[in-house]
Amino acid sequence: MSGANFILLINLSVAGLLAASFMAVAFHDVGRVPARWLASGYLLGMVYFAIEFSIPAFTDARPAVVAAFAVFLGATIAFNVGLARKYGIATPWPPMLFFLLAATIAVYFVQDLPRQSLARMMAYQLPYAVMQFVGLAIVWSSRQSRGRLERILMAVLVASGVQFASKPFIAHALGGWGANPQAYLQSGYALVSQSLGTVFGLALALLILAILVREVLADVTSKSETDTLSGLLNRGAFTRQAEQAVLGAMRQGVPVALVIADLDHFKSINDNFGHASGDRVIETFAGFLREAAARHHVAGRIGGEEFAIILPGANLAAARLFAEGTRSAFGALPIDGLPPDNRCTASFGIAELHPSETIADLMRRADEALYLAKNAGRDCVRASAGLGGEWPSNAIIINSRSG
């Protein structure tokens, strides 16, 4: 068995393993359409390698050569469809299918040219190179193209496209690709070509797998950090992200404020109208927080009916406006499942971070302010006392209440 035959068998096995890997990702999440397309691409790669391996057995190898070309070009197209689905790019089906048909017809007719002619070799390899650069364009045009893995992927696609385009010249330098299709696997060019195919095919697959696994892990992390009912961060995730937001604000020298809110008389809502109505109240209030929050804010559900939001760049006055706006809007909103005249309210405690404080100190003072709001009759906003329990000179006490 020649070295090229051995590498061809390795490529066949590797393509099968990679197809299985992408199918495993697809089965993990049935919504991962890109993984299914990528698996299809590597399954077609297996078919291609099987045809290449069987070509010496044919007396007339032309049909097998053309079929192998069409199958491998189809594999690159399936790979690009997977990339397009992954990065949210519209799949250019008509031009790609036309390209597949036109390139296959061209390869069929160039079989009449001298086997070692440059035109024949270019007709066979350039379509593969074109598909690599189409894949590059897909990744480049996506919003995620500046990610580290995406940059590496684009570099490998460029290198892969260049190696396909250079193969006719490599074949010429190595004395051609065999006197006939049956002799191809005995040539030095076949050994180089199949080796390059192994390197680039494996590199592209591993990069895409890393990107898909990165997303799977991100989904798992997001689900583990998200409160399922409210859609906000759970307490642990809120604390971690709030600490990061506070540290970032301190480095930038900007103020940080914390708002803690508690739904008023929530137990009575559950007791009188059922837990489904209570869940809708939580969902509605969480929706208010999401809509009011800016991208750099951190919002979470830190207890049964208790919520918190960190406001980097906001002082006590800004936190007051945020809390008051949320309080008044929520109190005026009818909730599905509750009587029309029944309005839900919330109490708010606010605090601004002092230079010597930690996030735990800030949360403690905001919680004390919330306690004051509840003692004041609920449905109001209260600001925290200063350090050591003293009210700072610029403290804001809000007595506004509906009803």
Automatic annotation (TrEMBL):
It catalyses: 2 GTP = 3',3'-c-di-GMP + 2 diphosphate. It comes from the Bacteria. The chain crosses the membrane at residues 6-27, 39-58, 64-83, 90-110, 122-140, 152-171, 191-213. The keyword tRNA processing does not apply. GO terms for biological process: cell adhesion involved in single-species biofilm formation; negative regulation of bacterial-type flagellum-dependent cell motility. Keywords: Membrane, Transmembrane, Transmembrane helix. It holds the Pfam family GGDEF. The lineage of its organism: Bacteria, Pseudomonadati, Pseudomonadota, Alphaproteobacteria, Hyphomicrobiales. It comes from Mesorhizobium huakuii. It is an enzyme of class 2 (transferase). GO terms for cellular component: plasma membrane. InterPro entries: Diguanylate_Cyclase (IPR050469), GGDEF_dom (IPR000160), Nucleotide_cyclase (IPR029787), Rev_trsase/Diguanyl_cyclase (IPR043128). This is diguanylate cyclase. The keyword ATP-binding does not apply. GO terms for molecular function: diguanylate cyclase activity. Its EC number is 2.7.7.65. Residues 254-386 form the GGDEF domain.
